[in-house]
Batch of 4 targets.
Target 1
Amino acid sequence: MRQSEDKGTEMVFAVIDTNVLVSFFLSEKDSPPVEVVRESLGGRITPVFNKYLLEEYREVLSREKFALNEHIVSSLLATIQSFGLQVESIDQGIILPDKKDIPIFEIAMVTRDLDSYLVTGNIKHYPKVDYVVTPKQMMDLLNSGLV
């Protein structure tokens, strides 16, 4: 957590897994994924991403089976780019069950100096570490004042 230079408020950095964005679009209005994305757009969470993750967001959210409005998806991704923190990930030599999860986990690894989190609905896909959390856990941390 870091102090925001312009607001004097605390900032929480988080890599938002693609499944959280999918859940945001498909969930009811006050579900934890919806709250996490709202907080990412509202400034309590600073989304951390790289080029790979942005491309994955766009590819997955554009799938025909979700039938999402292309303009709304583009607006969300533009907002993430504008207000988030873009980083370059570094090969950490990590092995995960799904190779597509490795670049996402590596973003969290290179931003550990910012105490960043990885927020995912698929927590079992990642190592058991305290900074890999579900959307509900992220909201509990935010609402408790622990971050």
Target 2
Amino acid sequence: MTDAADQIFKVLPRQLDKTVAAVLREWLPGQSWSQIQQLLKSRRVMVSGNLCMDAGRRLRLVDVVKVLARPMPPPPKEDAVRIRYLDKDVVVVEKPAGVTTTRHAEERDWPARRRQVQPTLDELLPRVIARKEGRRKGLPPPVRAVHRLDRETSGLMVFARTVKAEQVLGEQFRRHTTHRRYLAVALGAVAAQTIESQLVRDRGDNRRGSSKDANVGRRAVTHVRPLERLGDYTLVECALETGRTHQIRIHLAENGHPLCGEKVYRQPLFGQPKPDRSGAPRVALHAAELGFVHPTSGETMKFESPLPQDLREFLDRLRRAVGAKGKD
């Protein structure tokens, strides 16, 4: 699927609070109501980065609607969530790509049947924990998210299991005392560098980005180190000094090296996006290392996660392509 095949629409003031089905009829005048319904049912509509299958969902002015050329794959099953560490206070898991960490505020009142269409990681996890603990009846209490990974990002996450653990871990993430290292594949020849900027929620086109005004936004710092040059691409390591929403994706894109598979931040505020011919299966970003201080014992905890199969196969394809060019 090429990027040009996806259609992206921004909600206009006159479309505020209209249903997504009604507005899709405006944007796609050649489609009948039944065809619009089928688009939604076949997992081909996203609203602000999340799958939407509800024809009656009301749109906000900040929403961005994407009609995909091909259906999104079904969400990962419980078996895809691997527990790396579990005790009465915390659980460390490897998050699979394709699932969001938590549910958005406007989705929290959805009935259970509707949630099952696109479950979130914090909803799947109690069932995974119950199986791990050998519970035959009932589920453990809900887990508590203290940080997040994007839907397409895979890798290590920690959830709190108690209020106290949530408070202690949350403070560590707010103070940026946790250890987080990511692996990513970016376009171009990426040099070793430290990227620092002030991130804002809207750079001028309803997307997050950096501001030149030092008095606005939130300070974000990413330390980048190239690991392997792969022709037109680079495997890089990104260590977070801070942990802002989409920080790595924004920083690398703004420095001319958007991640392979990136669709949101590959489009600069001004000018044309760089073409991505890498064939990445998704945004090529993986949370490879996670470290924190245990909220009860005070022990320093550190975990590592290898690249998942989809990104390993992607890297192998890039390496083979480089090898084939070298033989020409």
Target 3
Amino acid sequence: MRGLALAMVLLTCTSTARAASPDLEAHIVSVVGEGDTGRAIADESPKHAKASEGVTLYAAIVIDGVVYSDAPRVKLAGKTRKTRPLADAGARLELRWYRVEPGVEDLSNETSGTFSYQAIPYEETEIQDMRDRTHARADVHPTRTPDRGGGLGTMRYKLVVRRAGSAAATPGVEARRGGASGGLTDAVHRVSLRADDSYLGWLTEMYGQPYIWASAGPSSATHQSERLEGSDCADFVVYGWRRLGHDVPYTWTGGLPALTRLLAGGARRDDGVYVDARGLAIAAPAPGDILLFPRHVGVFVRDVGVPGVLDDADIMVHTLFESPHEQDIAGSGYAGRPVEVRRWKQ
């Protein structure tokens, strides 16, 4: 009987301790801009913003059903919630923020002629400057691969919270989409910063994401590029046009002529200038025009060589075995190939 009584006491004490332990949840919410107006609602959806606007990340901690955050209002699970300041959460909170970023910038979905989605190797990198901060401006500079975007591109984030012996975390590298993609679900908080609202501007959202040979998806809406997981050269140029609201399909370089119109075509002369079949110099394209080479494509950015004509010193943006970046045509590996200057059909 004494043993039974002792067991009952231990069971009662254990049940009491569990009941007293707070229910702890961690969330990342964000808002375009500073988010310091009372009207802003920070939520968990992926964010697209111009770099000049920026995105503010907030920690939102749920303790015993109460939402603590320095964002005035947050939306969790589709419901708008009022918040209490994180300083009111009682026991000291430890906040650790992480970049969830690709560890490589070159992948292939085709091996020995067989297609399969290759799992993109993501890594979690602590953001030291954000340690114990309740909110901060989103920084999309990669740290595991070369920073080719200069503050433009896409980054994913994770938050780990510790409080009074308990811990909680938002999804990270384990949150895979499954067989239809090599990337992560939208449960991993995503921020994309672009240069501006132009076609070239929208392309900069893909900075920091890997080149994926034979990037694909069950549909255009579920394509790896649409989800900002990475792209090959053709899917990269399609991505920006789709972001402008044009319902064009993802395709390969051989499919681009059906979606564009030919402006000029020719080959490089010894002095680096591109000339047509009559030997006349091809006029410098407009920013955003397509430069289509045999089995490769880029987008014209600016005329920096011989003024007014297309030459191999001019700058294009493309992706080829590296994350998207600007590069002179001479360094692209395709300068000696014939080129077609094309423009998207409106």
Target 4
Amino acid sequence: MPERVATGEIAERLHDQRAAKKESNLAVEIVEGLLLAIVAVTTAWSGYQSTLWDSRSVASYGGSSKLRIAAQGAQTTAGQQMLYDSTTFNEWLVAAQANNTALTSFLERRFRPEYKTVFDAWLQTDPLKNPNAPPGPAFMPQYSNASAALAQRLDKEATAAFDAGNHAREIGDEYVRVTVLLAVVLFLTALSQRFDIRKVRLGIIGTALAVLTYSMFALATVGT
């Protein structure tokens, strides 16, 4: 009879130990399940952001190229206009020195409107008699070229777009790095399920949680 009681007690203890172990494993499995769920959602989000920022980078680079081409075109136009202004003005000087009023009037009508305004202001300085007058309209403070100003503005916009493309690419790379870290979390979580030893399993899960925490921090600070 005592032997039966002892055997019953041992069986009951074993049952309790198995139940406690089962409950303990259940808690670990719940943590693992939560980890997998969080990693799945976070990985999807990080991958989406990486693709999004890569697209923005490509768009910025494309916009920068278009702006740069437009700037070069405007600069070429400005150079042609300045050459035309200079050539026409030189012809005007020759005609003015020869007192050929018909030719000077003809050339003045051929000046570009933008240049003609500065030319008229230059004439007010009495340049043919005043030795202190500017050598030509191009040396007047009012002188400017709209095409050259446009080229400068477009070039600055192209540079800004290129820098924005670089910034977007860097952000996309940061999201890729976070995605890699999340893949490590996924691997560790799957690995922990291969072990029955509770301490080993908890150690692996702890490592996974640490990597996940760092990954979440990295996500929160991307681009800052």
